[in-house]
Amino acid sequence: MSVFTSSVVPDFFSTLHRVKSAVQRIPFRMAPPRFTDWYVNAAGNFAVRAHVICSDDGSVSALLTLRKGWYKGEYTYASTHVVLACKHTERRKAYRLASQHAEHLARLRYRF
Questions:
Q1: Whole-angstrom Cα distance, residue 70 to residue 54?
Q2: How confident is the model at residue 78 (pLDDT cuts 50, 70, 90)?
Q3: pLDDT value for 25
Q4: SS in 3 state form for the chain?
Q5: Which of 12, 40, 66, 112 has fewest C-beta within 10 Å?
Q6: Distance separating alpha carbons of residues 47 and 62, to the nearest angstrom
Q7: Are residues 56 and 104 in the same domain?
Q8: Which domain holds residue 17?
Q9: Is the same domain home to 9 and 56?
């Protein structure tokens, strides 16, 4: 084995591995998450979380998960499908609308 092969090849593969791992992380940073944080009302007994669902045909819809109760052992969950104002094929727009809808539901509609 030559000196060139023993010194350059490991450096090349380590650089290739670093570039590959950096490229694999890019889509996860660019795409919004599939669900939002919990939006809790002022009393603390009601919370809403929005899930963004991407279907195979490219359309995007939203599902709201409602959580009622004061503590973890008492929580009851329900979910409801949300019809967005218009058909959004962009996941970012759907995420923003679903997040806004969940926040309004928790902080305005079921405030207390």
A1: 32
A2: very high
A3: 67
A4: CCHHHHHHHHHHHHHHHHHHHHHHHHHHHHCCCCECCCEECCCCCEEEEEEEEECCCCCEEEEEEEEECCCHHHCEEEEEEECCCCCCCCHHHHHHHHHHHHHHHHHHHCCC
A5: 112
A6: 16
A7: yes
A8: 1-30
A9: no
